[in-house]
Amino acid sequence: MQIVGENSAAQIAAVNQLPGRTKLLHRKMLRKSAGATFHSIPASLYKNVYPGIDLAYYGEQSKLEFDFIVAPESNPAPIDLAFSGG
């Protein structure tokens, strides 16, 4: 699936982030790192994929879903998806 004619400069924003960081220890590299945790979906939001239209991605195990969020007074006509393969 490909989004056709999208704004290639769309900004991605993480949403529903919890306060604090998760500390991870990498055994093979013997170093620590910290990562953010998130409360709920959507996990990411692309702002202004089309004028006045955002794109939210949701994930659960091996499933990926998405929604186009159309702002009031915005035109959904530019939304265009192309599919290849199966």
Topology:
Blueprint: E1 2-3, E2 11-14, E3 22-26, E4 31-35, E5 44-50, E6 53-60, E7 63-70, E8 81-82
Antiparallel strand pairs: 1-8, 2-5, 3-4, 5-6, 6-7
Secondary-structure element order, N to C: EEEEEEEE
Counting DSSP H or I runs of 4 or more residues, the number of helices is 0
- Outline the low-pLDDT stretches: none
- The best one-word shape is globular
Mean pLDDT: 76
Number of domains: 1
β-strand amount: over 45%
Task: State the major sheet.
Answer: 4 strands, antiparallel
Q: Order the strands across the largest sheet as they lie in space.
A: 2-5-6-7
> How many β-strands, per DSSP?
8
Structural class designation:
mainly beta
Q: How big is the Rg?
A: 17 Å
User: For the terminal residues, how far apart are their CA atoms?
Assistant: 10 Å
- What is the helix fraction of residues, given as a range? under 10%
In words, what does this structure look like?
- This protein has 86 residues and is mainly beta.
- The chain has one domain.
- 0% of the residues lie in helices and 48% in strands.
- The chain has no helices and 8 strands.
- It has strands spanning 2-3, 11-14, 22-26, 31-35, 44-50, 53-60, 63-70, 81-82.
- The chain has a 4-stranded antiparallel β-sheet, with no helix packed on it.
- The radius of gyration is 17 Å and the shape is globular.
- The mean pLDDT is 76.
